[in-house]
Write a structure and sequence with these properties.
The structure holds two protein chains of two kinds. Chain A is α/β, with parallel strands linked by helices. In chain A, 34% of the residues lie in helices and 27% in strands. Chain A has a single domain, classed as Vaccinia Virus protein VP39 (Rossmann fold, 3-Layer(aba) Sandwich). In chain A, the strands form two sheets. A seven-stranded mixed beta sheet of chain A has the order 3-2-1-4-5-9-8, with helices on both faces. In chain B, a hairpin with a 2-residue loop joins strand 5 and strand 6. The chains are: A alpha/beta, B alpha+beta.
Amino acid sequence: MDSEEILWSTVEAYEAMASSYRRRAWDIVKRVAKLCREMGTFLDAGCGPGHNAVLLLSEYPKARGVLVDLSKAMVKRAQSSIELAGLKHRALLVVSDVRSLPLRSESMELCLYIAVIHHLPERAWRINALREAWRVLKDSGVALITSWSIAQRSFVKCVAMNFFKKLVKPSISLGDCIKVSIVRGTTYRRYYHLYTLGELKRDVQGSGFIVVQAGKYIALGRAVALQKNLFVVGLKKFIKG
Amino acid sequence: MRYWGLDVLACIYCKQFPLRIHVLNTVVEEVRVEDVPIPYCKAYCGYLSTQVVEGREYPCRECLKIEVSEAVLYCTNCKHWYPVKNGIVIMMPDNRRKPEADLEFLKKYSDKLPNEITYEGLPHNLSRSPGKSG
Protein backbone atom coordinates (compact mmCIF):
# COMPACT_ATOMS: atom_id res chain seq x y z
CA MET A 1 0.00 0.00 0.00
CA ASP A 2 1.24 3.49 -0.74
CA SER A 3 0.80 6.35 1.72
CA GLU A 4 -2.34 7.64 0.02
CA GLU A 5 -3.98 4.20 0.35
CA ILE A 6 -2.90 3.95 3.98
CA LEU A 7 -4.53 7.31 4.69
CA TRP A 8 -7.77 6.28 3.00
CA SER A 9 -7.91 2.98 4.83
CA THR A 10 -7.74 5.08 8.02
CA VAL A 11 -10.59 7.27 6.76
CA GLU A 12 -12.64 4.17 5.91
CA ALA A 13 -12.20 2.94 9.47
CA TYR A 14 -13.69 6.21 10.75
CA GLU A 15 -16.50 6.02 8.21
CA ALA A 16 -17.40 2.61 9.64
CA MET A 17 -17.03 3.69 13.26
CA ALA A 18 -18.88 7.00 12.95
CA SER A 19 -22.29 5.74 14.04
CA SER A 20 -21.00 4.30 17.31
CA TYR A 21 -18.16 6.77 17.96
CA ARG A 22 -18.50 8.67 21.25
CA ARG A 23 -15.97 11.10 22.62
CA ARG A 24 -15.99 13.49 25.54
CA ALA A 25 -14.79 17.03 25.02
CA TRP A 26 -11.27 17.72 26.23
CA ASP A 27 -10.88 20.24 29.04
CA ILE A 28 -7.55 21.35 27.54
CA VAL A 29 -9.57 22.90 24.70
CA LYS A 30 -11.16 25.35 27.15
CA ARG A 31 -7.79 26.18 28.69
CA VAL A 32 -6.19 26.88 25.32
CA ALA A 33 -9.19 28.90 24.12
CA LYS A 34 -8.52 31.31 26.98
CA LEU A 35 -5.15 32.14 25.40
CA CYS A 36 -6.92 33.71 22.40
CA ARG A 37 -7.28 37.48 22.37
CA GLU A 38 -10.90 37.12 21.37
CA MET A 39 -12.85 34.08 20.29
CA GLY A 40 -14.14 34.89 16.84
CA THR A 41 -13.78 32.06 14.37
CA PHE A 42 -12.10 28.75 15.14
CA LEU A 43 -11.19 25.70 13.11
CA ASP A 44 -11.67 22.17 14.42
CA ALA A 45 -9.67 20.03 12.00
CA GLY A 46 -10.41 16.33 12.27
CA CYS A 47 -13.55 17.27 14.18
CA GLY A 48 -14.86 13.70 14.51
CA PRO A 49 -18.34 13.73 16.08
CA GLY A 50 -17.94 17.41 16.95
CA HIS A 51 -17.60 17.12 20.74
CA ASN A 52 -14.90 19.79 21.08
CA ALA A 53 -16.62 22.24 18.72
CA VAL A 54 -19.91 21.88 20.62
CA LEU A 55 -18.02 22.71 23.82
CA LEU A 56 -16.43 25.87 22.37
CA LEU A 57 -19.59 27.11 20.65
CA SER A 58 -21.55 26.64 23.90
CA GLU A 59 -18.86 28.37 25.95
CA TYR A 60 -18.48 31.34 23.58
CA PRO A 61 -21.88 32.61 22.33
CA LYS A 62 -20.25 34.93 19.79
CA ALA A 63 -17.87 32.38 18.32
CA ARG A 64 -18.37 30.55 15.09
CA GLY A 65 -16.72 27.27 14.25
CA VAL A 66 -15.50 25.57 11.10
CA LEU A 67 -15.57 21.79 11.48
CA VAL A 68 -13.49 19.84 8.98
CA ASP A 69 -13.09 16.09 8.66
CA LEU A 70 -12.10 13.78 5.84
CA SER A 71 -14.78 11.30 6.87
CA LYS A 72 -18.20 12.27 5.56
CA ALA A 73 -19.95 10.02 8.08
CA MET A 74 -18.13 11.79 10.93
CA VAL A 75 -19.13 15.22 9.61
CA LYS A 76 -22.74 14.01 9.53
CA ARG A 77 -22.38 12.88 13.14
CA ALA A 78 -20.98 16.30 14.01
CA GLN A 79 -23.91 17.92 12.22
CA SER A 80 -26.45 16.08 14.37
CA SER A 81 -24.60 16.92 17.63
CA ILE A 82 -24.43 20.57 16.57
CA GLU A 83 -28.14 20.63 15.70
CA LEU A 84 -29.10 18.92 18.91
CA ALA A 85 -27.22 21.60 20.86
CA GLY A 86 -29.00 24.37 18.92
CA LEU A 87 -25.72 25.67 17.47
CA LYS A 88 -26.36 25.09 13.78
CA HIS A 89 -26.20 28.73 12.64
CA ARG A 90 -22.72 29.14 14.13
CA ALA A 91 -21.13 25.99 12.68
CA LEU A 92 -19.80 25.41 9.19
CA LEU A 93 -19.43 21.73 8.34
CA VAL A 94 -16.93 20.80 5.66
CA VAL A 95 -15.73 17.45 4.34
CA SER A 96 -12.16 18.26 3.40
CA ASP A 97 -8.48 17.46 3.74
CA VAL A 98 -6.25 19.02 6.36
CA ARG A 99 -3.29 18.91 3.95
CA SER A 100 -4.91 21.74 1.98
CA LEU A 101 -7.43 23.60 4.10
CA PRO A 102 -10.48 25.11 2.36
CA LEU A 103 -9.95 28.41 4.16
CA ARG A 104 -8.52 31.81 3.35
CA SER A 105 -5.34 32.97 5.06
CA GLU A 106 -5.58 34.79 8.39
CA SER A 107 -9.21 34.01 9.03
CA MET A 108 -9.05 32.02 12.31
CA GLU A 109 -8.39 32.91 15.94
CA LEU A 110 -7.86 29.30 17.02
CA CYS A 111 -6.98 26.02 15.31
CA LEU A 112 -7.72 22.71 17.00
CA TYR A 113 -5.75 19.79 15.61
CA ILE A 114 -6.84 17.14 18.07
CA ALA A 115 -5.58 13.65 17.32
CA VAL A 116 -5.45 14.32 13.60
CA ILE A 117 -1.90 14.79 12.27
CA HIS A 118 -0.78 11.40 13.63
CA HIS A 119 -3.03 9.82 10.97
CA LEU A 120 -0.94 11.25 8.11
CA PRO A 121 1.62 8.65 6.99
CA GLU A 122 4.15 11.04 5.41
CA ARG A 123 6.15 13.51 7.47
CA ALA A 124 5.85 16.05 4.63
CA TRP A 125 2.06 15.79 4.88
CA ARG A 126 2.11 16.35 8.64
CA ILE A 127 4.30 19.42 8.19
CA ASN A 128 2.02 20.60 5.40
CA ALA A 129 -1.04 20.26 7.63
CA LEU A 130 0.70 22.26 10.37
CA ARG A 131 1.77 24.96 7.91
CA GLU A 132 -1.84 25.19 6.79
CA ALA A 133 -2.86 25.82 10.41
CA TRP A 134 -0.26 28.59 10.55
CA ARG A 135 -1.49 30.07 7.28
CA VAL A 136 -5.16 30.29 8.24
CA LEU A 137 -4.47 31.76 11.69
CA LYS A 138 -4.50 35.49 12.30
CA ASP A 139 -1.53 37.20 13.90
CA SER A 140 -1.42 36.08 17.58
CA GLY A 141 -3.64 33.12 16.69
CA VAL A 142 -3.29 29.96 18.73
CA ALA A 143 -3.08 26.30 17.68
CA LEU A 144 -3.60 23.26 19.86
CA ILE A 145 -1.99 20.20 18.34
CA THR A 146 -2.26 16.80 19.98
CA SER A 147 -1.06 13.36 18.95
CA TRP A 148 -0.66 9.91 20.36
CA SER A 149 2.56 9.23 22.23
CA ILE A 150 5.11 6.58 21.25
CA ALA A 151 5.30 5.55 24.91
CA GLN A 152 2.15 3.43 25.12
CA ARG A 153 1.87 -0.09 26.38
CA SER A 154 -0.33 -1.24 23.50
CA PHE A 155 2.26 -0.25 20.90
CA VAL A 156 5.44 -1.60 22.54
CA LYS A 157 5.56 -4.57 20.19
CA CYS A 158 5.08 -2.44 17.09
CA VAL A 159 7.77 0.07 18.09
CA ALA A 160 10.20 -2.75 18.95
CA MET A 161 9.55 -4.34 15.54
CA ASN A 162 10.19 -1.00 13.87
CA PHE A 163 13.46 -0.75 15.76
CA PHE A 164 14.70 -4.00 14.22
CA LYS A 165 13.35 -3.19 10.77
CA LYS A 166 15.17 0.12 10.99
CA LEU A 167 18.51 -1.69 11.28
CA VAL A 168 17.95 -3.03 7.77
CA LYS A 169 16.03 -0.06 6.35
CA PRO A 170 17.05 3.21 8.06
CA SER A 171 14.19 5.18 6.45
CA ILE A 172 11.64 3.39 8.66
CA SER A 173 10.27 5.56 11.45
CA LEU A 174 9.94 4.02 14.93
CA GLY A 175 6.49 5.47 15.46
CA ASP A 176 4.74 4.16 12.33
CA CYS A 177 2.08 1.77 13.59
CA ILE A 178 -1.26 0.31 12.55
CA LYS A 179 -4.18 -0.14 14.92
CA VAL A 180 -6.55 -2.91 13.89
CA SER A 181 -10.23 -2.60 14.80
CA ILE A 182 -13.13 -4.86 13.97
CA VAL A 183 -16.42 -3.10 13.30
CA ARG A 184 -19.49 -5.23 12.65
CA GLY A 185 -17.35 -8.13 11.47
CA THR A 186 -15.11 -6.14 9.14
CA THR A 187 -11.46 -5.47 9.89
CA TYR A 188 -10.22 -1.90 9.59
CA ARG A 189 -6.68 -0.58 9.81
CA ARG A 190 -5.93 2.86 11.15
CA TYR A 191 -2.48 4.31 10.68
CA TYR A 192 -0.77 6.21 13.50
CA HIS A 193 2.49 8.05 13.55
CA LEU A 194 3.29 7.86 17.26
CA TYR A 195 5.22 10.91 18.34
CA THR A 196 7.79 11.69 20.99
CA LEU A 197 7.19 15.06 22.63
CA GLY A 198 10.46 16.39 21.21
CA GLU A 199 9.49 15.39 17.69
CA LEU A 200 6.02 16.94 17.97
CA LYS A 201 7.53 20.19 19.26
CA ARG A 202 10.07 20.17 16.43
CA ASP A 203 7.40 19.67 13.77
CA VAL A 204 5.21 22.44 15.21
CA GLN A 205 8.18 24.79 15.48
CA GLY A 206 9.36 23.86 12.01
CA SER A 207 5.98 24.96 10.65
CA GLY A 208 6.48 28.52 11.86
CA PHE A 209 4.92 28.43 15.32
CA ILE A 210 6.32 29.60 18.61
CA VAL A 211 5.79 26.74 21.06
CA VAL A 212 4.27 28.21 24.22
CA GLN A 213 3.23 25.03 26.03
CA ALA A 214 3.89 21.33 25.56
CA GLY A 215 3.49 18.16 27.53
CA LYS A 216 1.54 15.00 28.17
CA TYR A 217 -2.18 15.41 28.33
CA ILE A 218 -4.25 13.55 30.88
CA ALA A 219 -7.98 14.02 30.47
CA LEU A 220 -9.77 14.86 33.71
CA GLY A 221 -11.00 11.82 35.54
CA ARG A 222 -8.83 9.41 33.59
CA ALA A 223 -6.31 7.00 35.03
CA VAL A 224 -2.69 8.12 34.75
CA ALA A 225 -1.87 4.94 32.84
CA LEU A 226 -3.85 6.33 29.94
CA GLN A 227 -1.64 9.32 29.29
CA LYS A 228 -1.31 8.42 25.66
CA ASN A 229 -1.74 11.94 24.33
CA LEU A 230 0.88 14.60 23.77
CA PHE A 231 0.04 18.23 23.22
CA VAL A 232 1.73 21.33 21.94
CA VAL A 233 0.30 24.84 21.95
CA GLY A 234 1.67 26.96 19.12
CA LEU A 235 1.43 30.72 18.72
CA LYS A 236 1.54 32.52 15.40
CA LYS A 237 3.45 35.77 15.61
CA PHE A 238 4.39 37.91 12.67
CA ILE A 239 7.94 39.10 13.03
CA LYS A 240 8.06 42.82 12.54
CA GLY A 241 10.70 43.82 10.05
CA MET B 1 -24.18 25.99 5.72
CA ARG B 2 -24.97 29.57 6.48
CA TYR B 3 -23.90 32.31 4.09
CA TRP B 4 -21.15 33.31 6.51
CA GLY B 5 -19.19 30.30 5.28
CA LEU B 6 -18.28 32.42 2.28
CA ASP B 7 -16.44 34.79 4.61
CA VAL B 8 -13.82 32.10 5.25
CA LEU B 9 -13.99 29.41 2.54
CA ALA B 10 -11.33 29.37 -0.18
CA CYS B 11 -10.55 27.01 -3.05
CA ILE B 12 -8.50 23.99 -1.96
CA TYR B 13 -6.47 24.13 -5.18
CA CYS B 14 -5.63 27.79 -5.76
CA LYS B 15 -6.83 29.36 -2.48
CA GLN B 16 -8.98 31.81 -4.43
CA PHE B 17 -11.24 33.86 -2.12
CA PRO B 18 -14.14 34.46 -2.16
CA LEU B 19 -15.84 31.52 -3.84
CA ARG B 20 -18.98 32.24 -5.81
CA ILE B 21 -22.17 30.62 -4.57
CA HIS B 22 -25.07 29.30 -6.63
CA VAL B 23 -27.85 28.62 -4.16
CA LEU B 24 -30.14 25.70 -5.04
CA ASN B 25 -32.19 25.15 -1.88
CA THR B 26 -32.68 27.05 1.35
CA VAL B 27 -34.62 26.59 4.57
CA VAL B 28 -35.51 29.45 6.93
CA GLU B 29 -34.92 28.53 10.56
CA GLU B 30 -35.83 30.36 13.76
CA VAL B 31 -32.70 31.23 15.68
CA ARG B 32 -31.94 33.79 18.36
CA VAL B 33 -30.04 36.52 16.60
CA GLU B 34 -30.49 39.55 18.90
CA ASP B 35 -26.92 39.38 20.25
CA VAL B 36 -25.28 38.90 16.89
CA PRO B 37 -22.48 41.39 16.16
CA ILE B 38 -23.07 43.31 12.92
CA PRO B 39 -21.46 42.97 10.46
CA TYR B 40 -21.19 39.27 11.31
CA CYS B 41 -18.64 38.68 8.57
CA LYS B 42 -15.19 40.19 8.50
CA ALA B 43 -14.11 40.23 4.86
CA TYR B 44 -16.90 39.13 2.55
CA CYS B 45 -20.69 39.19 2.76
CA GLY B 46 -21.85 36.07 0.92
CA TYR B 47 -25.51 37.05 1.24
CA LEU B 48 -25.05 40.29 -0.71
CA SER B 49 -21.97 39.08 -2.66
CA THR B 50 -19.92 42.12 -1.65
CA GLN B 51 -16.81 42.95 0.33
CA VAL B 52 -17.51 43.98 3.91
CA VAL B 53 -16.87 47.71 4.34
CA GLU B 54 -17.15 49.89 7.41
CA GLY B 55 -20.13 52.15 7.87
CA ARG B 56 -22.50 50.10 5.76
CA GLU B 57 -25.59 48.30 7.02
CA TYR B 58 -25.85 44.54 6.61
CA PRO B 59 -28.89 42.25 6.96
CA CYS B 60 -27.01 39.81 9.24
CA ARG B 61 -30.02 38.96 11.45
CA GLU B 62 -32.10 38.02 8.44
CA CYS B 63 -29.21 36.18 6.77
CA LEU B 64 -28.29 34.03 9.79
CA LYS B 65 -31.74 32.41 9.73
CA ILE B 66 -31.23 31.04 6.24
CA GLU B 67 -29.77 27.58 6.00
CA VAL B 68 -28.32 26.89 2.56
CA SER B 69 -29.01 23.18 2.24
CA GLU B 70 -28.07 22.70 -1.43
CA ALA B 71 -25.67 24.85 -3.44
CA VAL B 72 -22.61 24.91 -5.62
CA LEU B 73 -19.47 26.81 -4.62
CA TYR B 74 -17.45 27.80 -7.64
CA CYS B 75 -13.87 29.01 -7.97
CA THR B 76 -13.75 31.58 -10.77
CA ASN B 77 -9.96 31.28 -10.89
CA CYS B 78 -9.33 27.54 -11.45
CA LYS B 79 -12.89 26.46 -12.37
CA HIS B 80 -13.28 23.92 -9.56
CA TRP B 81 -16.79 23.47 -8.24
CA TYR B 82 -17.79 22.04 -4.89
CA PRO B 83 -21.24 20.78 -3.91
CA VAL B 84 -23.14 21.64 -0.73
CA LYS B 85 -25.42 18.73 0.14
CA ASN B 86 -27.77 18.62 3.13
CA GLY B 87 -26.03 21.69 4.49
CA ILE B 88 -22.57 20.08 4.39
CA VAL B 89 -19.86 21.61 2.20
CA ILE B 90 -17.93 18.94 0.32
CA MET B 91 -14.46 20.05 -0.72
CA MET B 92 -12.66 16.82 -1.48
CA PRO B 93 -9.50 16.46 -3.57
CA ASP B 94 -10.23 15.54 -7.21
CA ASN B 95 -8.97 11.98 -6.85
CA ARG B 96 -11.52 11.34 -4.09
CA ARG B 97 -14.57 12.63 -5.96
CA LYS B 98 -16.87 10.14 -7.61
CA PRO B 99 -17.58 11.14 -11.24
CA GLU B 100 -21.01 9.46 -11.16
CA ALA B 101 -22.12 11.37 -8.05
CA ASP B 102 -20.78 14.66 -9.46
CA LEU B 103 -22.55 14.19 -12.79
CA GLU B 104 -25.80 13.17 -11.15
CA PHE B 105 -25.70 16.32 -9.01
CA LEU B 106 -24.99 18.54 -12.04
CA LYS B 107 -27.75 16.89 -14.06
CA LYS B 108 -30.26 17.32 -11.25
CA TYR B 109 -29.60 21.06 -11.07
CA SER B 110 -28.51 21.75 -14.65
CA ASP B 111 -31.35 24.24 -15.24
CA LYS B 112 -30.28 26.27 -12.20
CA LEU B 113 -26.54 26.34 -12.85
CA PRO B 114 -24.57 28.28 -15.46
CA ASN B 115 -22.89 26.44 -18.32
CA GLU B 116 -19.43 27.39 -17.06
CA ILE B 117 -20.09 24.96 -14.18
CA THR B 118 -22.22 22.27 -15.82
CA TYR B 119 -20.12 22.07 -19.00
CA GLU B 120 -16.71 23.49 -18.03
CA GLY B 121 -16.45 23.05 -14.25
CA LEU B 122 -13.70 20.87 -12.77
CA PRO B 123 -13.01 18.08 -12.03
CA HIS B 124 -16.16 16.63 -13.65
CA ASN B 125 -18.79 18.17 -15.90
CA LEU B 126 -21.53 17.17 -18.33
CA SER B 127 -19.48 17.72 -21.47
CA ARG B 128 -18.09 14.21 -21.00
CA SER B 129 -20.02 11.06 -20.41
CA PRO B 130 -19.34 9.04 -17.21
CA GLY B 131 -16.36 6.73 -17.43
CA LYS B 132 -14.62 8.82 -20.05
CA SER B 133 -13.51 11.60 -17.71
CA GLY B 134 -9.83 12.44 -17.45
